[in-house]
Write a structure and sequence with these properties.
By secondary structure, this protein is of the alpha+beta class. It is built from five helices and eight strands, in the order H-H-E-E-E-E-E-H-E-E-E-H-H.
């Protein structure tokens, strides 16, 4: 099986959000140097590099850089960065059994939510609606060490397909709600409230 088969959906989502961010800059919803978050992702062996855009360029205050990594049986979201003199490299932030799920997690939490925060529209935080209400319908959580052996940790899995699972370093159940959405539903959810965003063409996805 091609572990990277879902890449076209993630690439399409990232391109869509770059267009949304460009629209926000051109329409006065945000400054370009504050909202153009990421560049075009590219594969480097078993690693998908997600380059930073102008809004996330390294400066005196630090930086964060992200990648997806195929570990042989799961994908990891890894972060490198520097903050207040402390530097870290390839720290694992999350594990997902599928590329589609790690892509939706990143698109919602790291791209969509942060795009909303970068505007001057004072938009509500999407993720807050799912806090402290447990996992989404069809998902369950169980306490067990994460794949690096850290505990306490929580593994969330689909009840109808236990092989579909994820861990995050925060142990959050909110991610399961994003994973229950189609790609189109996910992207449209995070553009709610961005005036005029409906004019940005949303691409087709494999689960339409």
């Amino acid at each position: 099986m091609d572990e990277w088969a879902a890449l076209p959906d993630f690439f399409s989502a990232m391109a869509y959000w770059r267009n949304v961010q460009q629209f926000c800059a051109e329409s006065g919803h945000a400054k370009a140097d504050k909202i153009l978050l990421f560049g075009t992702p590219y594969l480097d062996g078993d690693r998908l590099i997600i380059p930073n855009g102008p809004a996330r360029a390294e400066d005196s205050e630090g930086y964060r850089a992200y990648s997806f990594n195929w570990e042989g049986n799961a994908f990891t979201l890894r972060e490198s960065g520097r903050d207040r003199g402390t530097t870290w490299n390839n720290v694992t932030k999350a594990w997902f059994s599928s590329l589609s799920d790690i892509g939706k997690h990143f698109t919602g939490s790291y791209v969509g939510e942060r795009t909303r925060m970068a505007t001057n529209l004072k938009l509500p935080i999407v993720n807050l609606q799912w806090v402290d209400i447990g996992p989404a319908p069809g998902w369950s959580g169980s306490g067990e060490p994460d794949p690096d052996g850290f505990e306490p940790a929580t593994k969330y899995h689909r009840n109808d397909d236990p092989s579909r699972y994820y861990f995050t370093d925060a142990g959050d159940s909110e991610t399961s709600f994003r994973l229950n959405l189609s790609w189109r539903e996910l992207n449209l959810l995070y553009t709610e409230g961005i005036s005029g965003a409906e004019s940005v063409l949303i691409p087709p996805f494999s689960d339409d």
